[in-house]
Amino acid sequence: MKLLTLNFLTCARKACKATNAAFPLHPKDAELEIVEVELSPLFVRNILPRVEWEALRTLCQDLGLPQLPATAPEPGELFTPNPSDGVEGEGIEEVGEEGEPTQTLKDLHHVLLETTIREGKLVCGSCGHEYAVKEGIANFLLPSHLV
Amino acid sequence: MPQYLVRLAQTHESFRKAELEALAELAGIDIKFDFYDEDSPFCILALPSPSSAATLIHRSILSLSIHELWARGTDYPSLHASNHLSSSTFWPPHTTSSFRFTLDSYRGSRPSATQRTLIDSFAYMPLTGRIKMSNPELSLTIFEDFATGATAPRALYLGRLLALSGRAAKTTYDLKKRAYISTTSMDAELALVTANMALAAPGKLFYDPFSGTGGFMVAGAHFGASVWGSDIDGRSIRGKGGKAKRDVVSNMVQYGLMSRYLDGFVADLTNSPIRGARGPGEDAARGGWLDGIMCDPPYGVREGLKVLGLKRDPGENGERLACVDRYMEEGYIPPKRPYSFEAMLEDILQFAAVMLVVGGRLSMWMPTANEEGEDGEGQKEIGIPMHPALGLVSVCVQPFNKWSRRLLTYRRLSSDEISPEALSAMASRKKRVHGNGENADDLNDFRRKYFQGFKEPEAEHTADRQ
């Protein structure tokens, strides 16, 4: 399970979803695995605004990964400037005109898409329920008394 | 605007126009249908330029190719006349190009000698380049459209080939050659069409809440989207087999799409772990973070329609205690109960309304009985479900014998398109009581009718339901 996925998941219990403590889920006894993924600069650029940066920082801290900067990188930091570049926002096809991806983008790619939790548990900070991750697949099914 | 001829596949007719419209929206192309008929594989579009025509068609699944329309007629004399009329525009750039002439007859056939004669009748065109049957610079096609059983074509077109469609993907992703499938896997052609309808494209985030063997994930990834999937049945995600493991991941690997695969996890849509967008304001105003949702929810016939929870209130009996005691144990499987089909549709729409970005799309399949009312009007036992934050884009129907299924595509509206009254009315409306029936038939009209062979419902059943 990629760290990116974890950034979009919270506790499955309805009672917890509204609380702030339930997000992000905290990994426990996590066994990490690095899985190489082809770099897609466009994808990283598009998802960065949707990532909860604070939660990602907490997660990296929990997992003992290198500390991330306090704020998310600006879109301008993801590509080396290209003089002929007039592209902003929307243009999905024009990625070629954006210049080369920077180290910042590559690092983000590594953290979000290549760092995965292979085995372990995800703990809700609100109710303490533990969700198991086995072979990279997390199980969010709740026992009937928690539904 | 110049006219272009699209050679469509004569299959899944009600999907074809909607697919072209979706692709035009995705590419930001102005599209106008000058001629379209469900009974004809030829469609005439007005488009800004030949390059936009090629862009439009390159990932279309239900068309074969797009052509610059040089001439049209109802018989050969009128076709030739029309050809002469536009000759000054179209002929000059191609006089020295290598070329090929072919004949494409729909619902008719011509012996090769006649084909030759028909092609030779265009000998007056000033084409001095050499004839080249493979990869010519100019590929001209005479299209003949015959009515059923007719001996002469009802319409004729002459077109220059601009681009082929993405229909070859239908063969590449054919289920027969896919390693991991199940009884309810969506066929490759329709899964790819679904991905087109939902505007899957590079850099986008897609999710399938009923992923099963991952057919929609494969289709979305084919068009460049990054995909998540979840299913309430963990077995479908974990896959089968020991050493030669077949699972969603192996499907992705088979097609070289692994870099587009994000994750699969086990989850129930009614108790989904997916978070909404965070921040101040109402869900409806914020918009979410998913670009598209594609799904084929269980109909309750081949796949049971289940959500988490106990079938009946256990009271103080052992079942409940066992659950509380044992849920932390290895291999514990949470109990599931049958669920109402309508409630599930409502849940999907609500989920999509919260999770989709503004303009993001939900493409969802839904079965329905083909009931003919007394007055001949088709009566659907469940109407098309609606949500104030979602606008219906298209309804496509795949008919079977006694039932059919529809592909419904919705677009997430922006906050100023959403009527606040409708939204608050929905929020205040008491959630319909769903999911308390004892068995699957009580909860799912479609399932009940399916197993009754779509006969007239019994009086008592009609009385029970409101």
From TrEMBL, chain A:
<dbReference type="Pfam" id="PF03966">
    <property type="entry name" value="Trm112p"/>
</dbReference>
<comment type="similarity">
    <text>Belongs to the TRM112 family.</text>
</comment>
<protein>
    <submittedName>
        <fullName>Trm112p-domain-containing protein</fullName>
    </submittedName>
</protein>
<dbReference type="GO" id="GO:0046982">
    <property type="term" value="F:protein heterodimerization activity"/>
</dbReference>
<dbReference type="GO" id="GO:0030488">
    <property type="term" value="P:tRNA methylation"/>
</dbReference>
<dbReference type="InterPro" id="IPR039127">
    <property type="entry name" value="Trm112"/>
</dbReference>
<feature type="region of interest" description="Disordered">
    <location>
        <begin position="78"/>
        <end position="101"/>
    </location>
</feature>
<dbReference type="GO" id="GO:0070476">
    <property type="term" value="P:rRNA (guanine-N7)-methylation"/>
</dbReference>
<feature type="compositionally biased region" description="Acidic residues">
    <location>
        <begin position="87"/>
        <end position="100"/>
    </location>
</feature>
<dbReference type="InterPro" id="IPR005651">
    <property type="entry name" value="Trm112-like"/>
</dbReference>
From TrEMBL, chain B:
<keyword id="KW-0808">Transferase</keyword>
<dbReference type="InterPro" id="IPR029063">
    <property type="entry name" value="SAM-dependent_MTases_sf"/>
</dbReference>
<dbReference type="GO" id="GO:0043527">
    <property type="term" value="C:tRNA methyltransferase complex"/>
</dbReference>
<dbReference type="Pfam" id="PF25904">
    <property type="entry name" value="Tmrp11_N"/>
</dbReference>
<protein>
    <submittedName>
        <fullName>tRNA guanosine-2'-O-methyltransferase</fullName>
    </submittedName>
</protein>
<keyword id="KW-0963">Cytoplasm</keyword>
<keyword id="KW-0820">tRNA-binding</keyword>
<keyword id="KW-0949">S-adenosyl-L-methionine</keyword>
<dbReference type="GO" id="GO:0008033">
    <property type="term" value="P:tRNA processing"/>
</dbReference>
<dbReference type="InterPro" id="IPR000241">
    <property type="entry name" value="RlmKL-like_Mtase"/>
</dbReference>
<dbReference type="GO" id="GO:0000049">
    <property type="term" value="F:tRNA binding"/>
</dbReference>
<keyword id="KW-0694">RNA-binding</keyword>
<dbReference type="GO" id="GO:0032259">
    <property type="term" value="P:methylation"/>
</dbReference>
<keyword id="KW-0819">tRNA processing</keyword>
<dbReference type="GO" id="GO:0005737">
    <property type="term" value="C:cytoplasm"/>
</dbReference>
<feature type="domain" description="tRNA (guanine(10)-N(2))-methyltransferase TRMT11 N-terminal">
    <location>
        <begin position="3"/>
        <end position="167"/>
    </location>
</feature>
<dbReference type="GO" id="GO:0160102">
    <property type="term" value="F:tRNA (guanine(10)-N2)-methyltransferase activity"/>
</dbReference>
<feature type="domain" description="Ribosomal RNA large subunit methyltransferase K/L-like methyltransferase">
    <location>
        <begin position="177"/>
        <end position="303"/>
    </location>
</feature>
<dbReference type="InterPro" id="IPR059073">
    <property type="entry name" value="TRMT11_N"/>
</dbReference>
<comment type="similarity">
    <text>Belongs to the class I-like SAM-binding methyltransferase superfamily. TRM11 methyltransferase family.</text>
</comment>
<dbReference type="InterPro" id="IPR016691">
    <property type="entry name" value="TRMT11"/>
</dbReference>
<dbReference type="Pfam" id="PF01170">
    <property type="entry name" value="UPF0020"/>
</dbReference>
